[in-house]
Amino acid sequence: MPTDITPFLRPAVPKTDSDLEKDLEISKDLVDKMVPSYLKDLYRDPFNQSLTLSDEELDDIREACLSDSTRIINYLDSVLKEKQDLMDRQVKSLEHIAEQAYAQATSAEALCKTVNTIAVNAGNQARNSSQIAESAKRQADVAVALSKKCDFKGWISVGIAALCALMEFAVHHNEIIEFVKNILAK
After folding, report:
1. Is the Cα dihedral 108, 111, 117, 121 positive or negative?
2. 32 and 47 Cβ atoms separated by less than 8 Å
3. Which of 57, 35, 54, 53 is CA-nearest to residue 44?
4. Measured between alpha carbons, how far is 172 from 159 in angstroms, rounded to an integer?
5. 40, 31 in Cβ contact below 8 A?
6. Burial 82-93 (b: 16+ CB within 10 A, else e)
7. Distance from the first to the final alpha carbon of the chain
8. How far apart are the C-alpha atoms of 42 and 36, rounded to whole Å?
9. Among 45, 27, 23, 24, which residue's Cα sits nearest to residue 35?
10. Which of 27, 130, 89 shows the shortest CA–CA distance to 138?
11. Which position among 6, 44, 131, 168 has the lowest Cβ density within 10 Å, counted as fewest Cβ atoms?
């Protein structure tokens, strides 16, 4: 690839006064086309005359100098401020909703802990009740076994009492018969 660019360079030609006059005429034509009519006098000869403009004319000049982009920016600025205000209200609303959700979550967490504590206590009571029921069953089994032993002893005592009564009747049967006759005779 050639690195020598000298064949492509042309010698610089200095500008002359006639070139400057042409540029000035082009500038004047451009000013005539682009600048509003009340500003044209400012760009024509003589420039040394003093101009006095009223405040209203100065405001008009300032307004005319504003570009379309500046006008769009000014318009959009007010529209965007309204949108920003709306967004700020929405953010505040969302923050309020988030605070309420956090408060409800905290409340739900506390409620969950309370319910968990109640469930643990209920479990403990159920285990205690189960132990009490097992103890009562053992006591009932012991009572049944004891009652069976007592029942057997009771029948033995009834048998002994009946035997004693028969022996008493056998030994004293004459006296008993006499006593019953006396009771019946009266």
Report:
1. negative
2. no
3. 35
4. 20
5. yes
6. eeeeeeeeeeee
7. 167
8. 11
9. 27
10. 130
11. 6
Task: Spell out the domain ranges in the chain.
Answer: 19-65
Contact in structure between 61 and 53 (CB atoms under 8 Å): yes
Distance CA 99, CA 106 (A): 10
Looking at residue 120, its pLDDT comes to 92
Identify the residue with better confidence: 137 or 34.
137
Asked if 81 and 66 touch (Cβ cutoff 8 Å), the reply is no
pLDDT over 70 (residue 41): no
C-alpha to C-alpha distance for 98 and 91, rounded to whole angstroms: 10
Q: Omega into 2 within 30° of 0, i.e. cis? A: no
The first and second tokens of residue 53, run together, are 């403009």
For the chain, the 3-state helix, strand and coil shares in percent, each to the nearest 5, are 85, 0, 15
Query: 120 is written with which tokens?
Result: 């643990």
* More confidently predicted of 19 and 146: 146
Q: Are 38 and 59 in contact (CB under 8 A)?
A: no
pTM of the entire predicted model: 0.35
Tokens of 80: 């965007």
Which sign, positive or negative, has the C-alpha torsion 114, 115, 121, 124? negative
**Which tokens go with 37?**
């009519």
DSSP state of 172: T
